[in-house]
Amino acid sequence: MHPDMKVELAGLVLRSPIMVASGVLGSSTGLIKRVSENPSVGAVVTKTVTYNPRNGYENPTAIDLGFGFLNAMGLPNPGYLDYKNELAELRDKIEIPLIVSIGPSNSEEASEMVKALNEVSDGFELNLSCPHTEKLGLEVGSDPEKVRRITASARKYTSKPLFIKVSPNVTSVVEIARAAVEAGADAITAINTLKSMAIDVNAMKPVLSNVYGGLSGRAIRPVGVRIVYELYETLRVPIVGCGGIYDWRDAVEFILAGASAIQVGSAIACSRSGLNIFGEIEKGIVEYLVAKGLSNIRGLVGLAHTS
Amino acid sequence: MHPDMKVELAGLVLRSPIMVASGVLGSSTGLIKRVSENPSVGAVVTKTVTYNPRNGYENPTAIDLGFGFLNAMGLPNPGYLDYKNELAELRDKIEIPLIVSIGPSNSEEASEMVKALNEVSDGFELNLSCPHTEKLGLEVGSDPEKVRRITASARKYTSKPLFIKVSPNVTSVVEIARAAVEAGADAITAINTLKSMAIDVNAMKPVLSNVYGGLSGRAIRPVGVRIVYELYETLRVPIVGCGGIYDWRDAVEFILAGASAIQVGSAIACSRSGLNIFGEIEKGIVEYLVAKGLSNIRGLVGLAHTS
Amino acid sequence: MSSKTHYYVEAEVVSNIIETSRVNTLVLKLGQHMEVKPGQFLMVWRPGDGEIPITPSLTNGETICLTIERVGLTSSRLASLKAGERVFLRGPYGNGFNLEYPGKYLLVGGGTGAASLTPAYLKLVEKGVQTLFLVGGRNRDNLVYVNKLRELNANIRIATDDGSVGFHGTLPEFFKKIIAESFFENVLTIGPEKMMVKIAEECHRNGIRCQVSLVRIVKCGIGFCGSCVLDPVGLRVCVDGPVFNAEEILGTDFGAYMRDEAGRRVEVTL
Amino acid sequence: MSSKTHYYVEAEVVSNIIETSRVNTLVLKLGQHMEVKPGQFLMVWRPGDGEIPITPSLTNGETICLTIERVGLTSSRLASLKAGERVFLRGPYGNGFNLEYPGKYLLVGGGTGAASLTPAYLKLVEKGVQTLFLVGGRNRDNLVYVNKLRELNANIRIATDDGSVGFHGTLPEFFKKIIAESFFENVLTIGPEKMMVKIAEECHRNGIRCQVSLVRIVKCGIGFCGSCVLDPVGLRVCVDGPVFNAEEILGTDFGAYMRDEAGRRVEVTL
Ligand SMILES: Cc1cc2nc3c(=O)[nH]c(=O)nc-3n(C[C@H](O)[C@H](O)[C@H](O)COP(=O)(O)OP(=O)(O)OC[C@H]3O[C@@H](n4cnc5c(N)ncnc54)[C@H](O)[C@@H]3O)c2cc1C
Ligand SMILES: Cc1cc2nc3c(=O)[nH]c(=O)nc-3n(C[C@H](O)[C@H](O)[C@H](O)COP(=O)(O)OP(=O)(O)OC[C@H]3O[C@@H](n4cnc5c(N)ncnc54)[C@H](O)[C@@H]3O)c2cc1C
Ligand SMILES: Cc1cc2nc3c(=O)[nH]c(=O)nc-3n(C[C@H](O)[C@H](O)[C@H](O)COP(=O)(O)O)c2cc1C
Ligand SMILES: Cc1cc2nc3c(=O)[nH]c(=O)nc-3n(C[C@H](O)[C@H](O)[C@H](O)COP(=O)(O)O)c2cc1C
Ligand code: FES
Ligand code: FES
Question: In this structure, what CATH number is given to the domain that contains residue C25?
Fold first, then answer.
């Protein structure tokens, strides 16, 4: 018997718990469409769009560290108005939920963006956690009051699922997530990248043009699993796990910690099989469920907590 | 010409910038002595001692993740009174500075421990950053006010160098470090481990008996380098870099970021050559200095900041 | 497991050869061996000056040549480096050309494209494959790498827009004429995209297998930032390319649209 | 690069064999191949019940036997497992015995030590080396693994403190007698530390090369927590040991002091 991989996430029905993390496909709607055709992908989150267009930082913007990746893209994106038109075209062409990631720097921007993008999306992910862009992301997401205000502003203009993406770069992720939930968030996505940097010893200079960037990939998985586990202990909303998921075991680790669904980011850069990584992860989870005698993926969520 | 590897650190003169990080040798004074005989080691930091003896947590307390290590030892130690006797014996037998790490949970403990241990040590490292022990470490070290009070209490009873070891698990390391410096700290050690966890997918359980632990090793180097770089931009006290240093390149990366000295922790567990890792790191740095035409290591500190 | 603290390979400029008023070739000595397949590219970094993708114009593991046109800040800085100055390289990235297809090869290089095709030419020679090299430019003074190719005994034909040397006309016009004269099973082309798309269409009409090397804004170089995507098919130039079989991408944004740094869809102008 | 999400190897209990009232042998089927050299140890975990170091008493890659004495919570829980229950193993850790030294081997096992020496015995047999196995216990009912060793055709001699079977006396006393009768170039010993130190001293006096397997509090198992240290020399049982040449450690805390869980120096009692 093939185990049931369907999950319900804040009102959305996903054919698989495997989502594509924000940003790793850039703003390309072509790439989103291509990935959405993969039957193992349950939902796609878009690149974070901001109020104004952004070119992002100068190169170097990303490097491979071997045990993870460091990037400071600088949230390049066409701005929400431009992107809205692309998304409008895309939406009829894909069959899975399209979650639009937005990165407002204040409540007004949040309201306007959600209002404008509501008709072209199946849900929103509020990125309050980018560690390397001034006035955006972490600068907002490390202050519970700002999180509360921005979440409430977004909430006011949409009845679609609202995910808040949190950062590991704070003293208490639980406090931030709680503020978001109290202000109306339906689910929490954890985690964004860890604030980091690298210096090239030959060049004697920081590698990233922005100096600081975000660490992603394998290296941050234990931090992500810890945060998902902490959130599951204290919150009553679904959690989407993200951070260093490369294979089915990594995905299962996050689900056992309490994630109802998971997102794959950096790993698509090192998958030998290209975008087949989603299929491989799904296959592995299915075999694991069979081996464990479980008939559906939902039975696995948070199982590491029972004593 | 052999470059000069001597560093001066908050009044201490170190024959080499390579130190042994706290905890990785346990409380064994025998092991400290053995390591201190290695001519490439500049100073040793002891295992953190606490006011009362602690057995630490039940096994499993540590695992190898491949790209780093996860541990929740639980600060096992004989307590400061017992350990004082061992240190008294040890001190005459070693020729390099012995820095005693203490983990007080409040100001009174800090004062008493420093008072008692002052005569057996060449300096103190205040561990306010262990991510997995209740009431100790991070619970203290994430609150600038507590950091200020504990640092001041320790400062009152010693004129020896006082290092404060900070945690990466806070929203602003700079704020914490600044509080410590204002309260009299001579130097900052950065970083301790990242709060993390791992779940075994077969066992479906958290691996560590304490559930949460600290991530160390390769994976955290980019976080450590970032924090050292940030501290160097804002503070005027020496910084000791720590986190994922395995070879000379890693060490140089930290020094370029602003570290006056560096500490090696986890890497001693995966060095094929055992404790020879110190010699290998020193040799690499010396060759690098020669290649760069630098006559001493001090000229390298913070060089990645100049534009 | 490598810890990759050595993120970049250091290289020193041995000499800087002026190709045209806009194009220079840097001859670099590598601090470390580096194997680059024909058509693969490197990310070339100068701290403070930025980092750009370049397809080497010669490579032998220890020495590498980069032929660079000054189009903006980074390329201009790099093209002006003097002997003894250093650059930092990461890579190689991308797929490179497939040179296993049977038959004769016609190489069509516009601008710096002739230079970037040279490693493929040398590989084909090594394999004993018959080749013809078409090099084009606006005029006599705009031709890149022709002397080098002559030195390498390449069978070259030239086209200039103003007829100052060789065929009088554009490369696609010349290309039409050449393939009318003699059949080639394979075409490799690097050059301005408007030129490449015309060559590709011509190949399509004539049943010639054509590989093109595409330029998009490359940021990460490793396939996860989505900056270099060719829409609507969602192919990433940095990992799925930069070389594509033309058949795969005719009818897409190839030759028509690209994305700018902010990810906005804009027209291809060159 | 492995991501090691599979931190532990899962193993299922096939059977639980009662050795004595305090000692059981678990026969485990491994979920994954595992190569353990004689004298190396594994960390054996049951979630909720703790994790302890055990030197396997038989191993062939797919099956592993653990002979466990109930001394506290974790060992008691493990020793009571039933067929079908699972344990989780990490390792192997430590150095293991050096079996390359020439000459005859005398194996001296007290308590579960006889079991833990068995893989070394089998390896020596495989190499065609001559061995004699001394097994000791308080009395007839306290002997561990003797039937298994007989089954494996080992050349066994027994000593019991009460003389209920074999030599009447302690293992060190018996050992003295045996080496007076016939010379052995090598001794391997596992057992209570007070016993091992006596054997080691006897070997020292008689010019016999002696390897002992030491027990200390093992926590990390990988050499960085310092819990298992033998002072004052600062040797770590988990990576520098657990097997030491006796000459290396005679005159240290071996046989006299160890550290407890808090790192306090305490006397060795057994
Ligand atoms: C795979 C590949 C191989 C290339 N090989 C060569 C080569 O061998 N020789 C050569 O002269 N040029 C080559 N290029 C093009 C070269 O990378 C660009 O000219 C260069 O990036 C421009 O940077 P700039 O800072 O000088 O100019 P900018 O002022 O940044 O931009 C000038 C123009 O270059 C384009 N551009 C800017 N940044 C990039 C980028 N990161 N990637 C691609 N295009 C960009 C812009 O769209 C703009 O039209 C190659 C490009 C790619 C993708
Ligand atoms: C390399 C090595 C190989 C071993 N092989 C075997 C074996 O094959 N069979 C066997 O029965 N026993 C073996 N032991 C001893 C076994 O690990 C201990 O008996 C066990 O850890 C006790 O744990 P407990 O929780 O049952 O008892 P506890 O109540 O925790 O302690 C009981 C006694 O065991 C000692 N002890 C506790 N924890 C440890 C630990 N982590 N490491 C070492 N000693 C500890 C304590 O000092 C105490 O005296 C080995 C020990 C080591 C170091
Ligand atoms: C190149 C790149 C771009 C990213 N862009 C975004 C973004 O626009 N918005 C966002 O919320 N997260 C962004 N992220 C973070 C990822 O969505 C993800 O949270 C993080 O990388 C951790 O997951 P991973 O280890 O699987 O990559 C980006 C990550 C990478 C590597
Ligand atoms: C087993 C182990 C025990 C540790 N014990 C202590 C400790 O007692 N006090 C302390 O300040 N840090 C302790 N640490 C943290 C290290 O000193 C160091 O800050 C951290 O591991 C990062 O460095 P690394 O990556 O080189 O290990 C311990 C780390 C490990 C791995
Ligand atoms: S440049 Fe980032 S995906 Fe190609
Ligand atoms: S058990 Fe940790 S060093 Fe040996």
Answer: 2.40.30.10
CB contact under 8 A, A27 and C226: yes
Give the tokens for residue D197.
């130190």
Contact C242, C55 (CB under 8 A): yes
CA of B246 to the centre of ligand 4 (A): 14
Binning chain C into helix, strand and coil, the percentages to the nearest 5 are: 20, 35, 45
- Alpha-helical runs (H) found in chain A: 29-36, 80-91, 107-117, 138-141, 144-156, 173-182, 221-234, 248-257, 267-270, 277-291
pLDDT means per 10 residues, chain D with 270 residues, are 67 96 96 94 97 96 95 97 97 96 96 96 96 94 92 94 94 95 95 96 96 97 92 92 96 94 92
Number of domains in chain D: 1
Residue A148 belongs to some domain of the structure: yes
End-to-end CA distance of chain D: 44
Q: pLDDT tens for residues C187-208?
A: 999 999 999 999 999 999 999 9
D44 found inside a domain: yes
Is D254 within 8 Å of D204 (Cβ atoms)? Answer: no
Ligand 4 contacts CB of residue B289 (under 6 A): no
User: What is the CATH classification number for the domain harbouring B169?
Assistant: 3.20.20.70
* Span from the CA of D100 to the centroid of ligand 5 (angstroms): 55
Residue of D71, D144, D239 with the most ligand 2 atoms within 8 Å of its CB, for mutation: D71
* A168 inside domain: yes
**What is the domain range of residue D22?**
5-93
Ligand 5 close to Cβ of residue C263 (< 6 A): no
pLDDT tens string, chain C, 270 residues long: the values are 344 556 899 999 999 999 999 999 999 999 889 999 999 999 999 999 999 999 999 998 899 999 999 999 999 999 999 999 999 999 999 999 999 999 999 999 999 999 999 999 999 999 999 999 999 999 999 999 999 999 999 999 999 999 999 999 999 999 999 999 999 999 999 999 999 999 999 999 999 999 999 999 999 999 989 999 999 998 999 999 999 999 999 999 999 999 999 999 999 998
Asked if A51 reaches chain C (Cβ–Cβ under 8 Å), the answer is no
**D5: chain A residues, CB-CB within 8 Å:** 247, 249-250, 253
Decide: C226 in ligand 5 pocket, CB within 6 A.
yes
**Residue C102 belongs to a domain:** no
Domain count, chain B: 1
Residue C45 domain-assigned (yes or no): yes
